[in-house]
Amino acid sequence: MTTLPNCPKCNSEYTYEDGTLLVCPECAYEWTPTTEAQQEDASAIKDANGNILNEGDSVTVIKDLKVKGSSLVIKIGTKVKNIRLIEDATDGHNIDCKIDGIGGMKLKSEFVKKL
C-alpha cells in the first residue's frame, strides 16, 4: 500500500487521488504529485540553454553585464573558470566566481552558458 503525502497547504493527512491530481478534502487544494527526480531536477541550477551546472564548471558570459558600483563591464564571451554554486540564493545570483581583471563576484546563471 502506497501512502499519499500530506497536503502542502494545510498539512492534512486525508489526501486522495483524483485522476492525475492529489486532492485535500479539508481545504480543497489540488496539486500534481512530483517524484524525487523531478524535485531534484527543478532545484538544479541551469544555464541559459537549460544545461545543469556543476561545481568547478567553466562558463561563458552571453550578454554584456555592467558591474554594479563601478564603470566596468563584463563583455560577451568572457570565460569564467571553476565556478562555485550557491544553492539558496535569495537575489538570484547563484554563481560565485573570480573573473580575470575584475575579481570575485556573483553572477546569475541565466546570463551564462556551459562550455
Question: Secondary-structure map with pairings?
Answer:
Elements: E1 16-18, E2 21-23, E3 30-31, H1 36-43, E4 59-61, E5 65-66, E6 73-74, E7 79-80, E8 84-85, E9 95-99, E10 103-107, E11 112-114
Antiparallel strand pairs: 1-2, 2-3, 4-7, 4-11, 5-6, 8-9, 9-10
Radius of gyration: 20 Å
- N-to-C span: 46 Å
Task: Give the low-confidence spans.
Answer: none
Helix and strand succession?
Answer: EEEHEEEEEEEE
CATH homologous superfamily annotation of the largest domain:
SH3 Domains
CATH third-tier fold name of the largest domain: SH3 type barrels
Helix content: under 10%
Derived structural class? mainly beta
Shape: elongated
Summed up, the domain count is 2
Q: Strand portion, in percent?
A: 25-35%
Give the spatial strand order of the biggest sheet.
1-2-3
The total count of helices amounts to 1
Oligomer: single chain
Number of strands: 11
Mean pLDDT: 87
CATH architecture of the largest domain: Roll
Largest sheet: 3 strands, antiparallel
CATH class of the largest domain: Mainly Beta
Would you write up a description of this structure?
Strand 1 and strand 2 form a beta hairpin. 7% of the residues lie in helices and 28% in strands. The chain folds into 2 domains: 38 residues, N-terminal domain of TfIIb, CATH 2.20.25; 57 residues, Roll (SH3 type barrels). The chain contains 1 helix and 11 strands. By secondary structure, it is mainly beta. Strands 1-2-3 form a 3-stranded antiparallel sheet, with no helix packed on it. Strands 7-4-11 form a 3-stranded antiparallel sheet, with no helix packed on it. Strands 8-9-10 form a 3-stranded antiparallel sheet, with no helix packed on it. Pfam families: YjdM (PF03831), Zn_Ribbon_YjdM (PF08274). This is Protein YjdM. Belongs to the YjdM family.
